[in-house]
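ok so dumb question maybe but i'm new to this and my supervisor (M.) told me to 'just get the structure for Flagellar basal-body rod protein FlgC' and walked off. so i did the thing. is this what she meant?? sequence i used:
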Amino acid sequence: MSMFKIFNVSGSAVSAQTQRLNVVASNLANADTVAGPDRQAYKARQVVFSTTPMGDVGTAGVNVSQITEDNAPGRRVHDPKHPQADAEGYVTYSNVNAVEEMVNMISASRSYQNNIEVMNTAKTLLSKTLQMGQSG
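this is what came out, is it supposed to look like this??
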């Protein structure tokens, strides 16, 4: 594999992790929202990754193949005085688990950082190789 392909592979991973971070941010922003007038609460979303060929045989990157919704029921809290309470006095909140989302955020952030480090290391190696060619 060419050293230049490393940038394509790591770049695809950085792009995918950026999308994952955006989904996590959306989930966290909606963690405490309640069902609207349609009685449908926000549903947590998850990113699904897949490999994608990057030209040469055996060279693959990553992309986001889809973003799925978690169909688990929302959290129901008995609060009859709440304006969004149903006939039984329950308010339905989103099914976002803030702890899981924080773990996803840390994981995506670390993956992003690692791929940036791979690109920086490849850049340094290419630069050193060019320097060796100039001194000879």
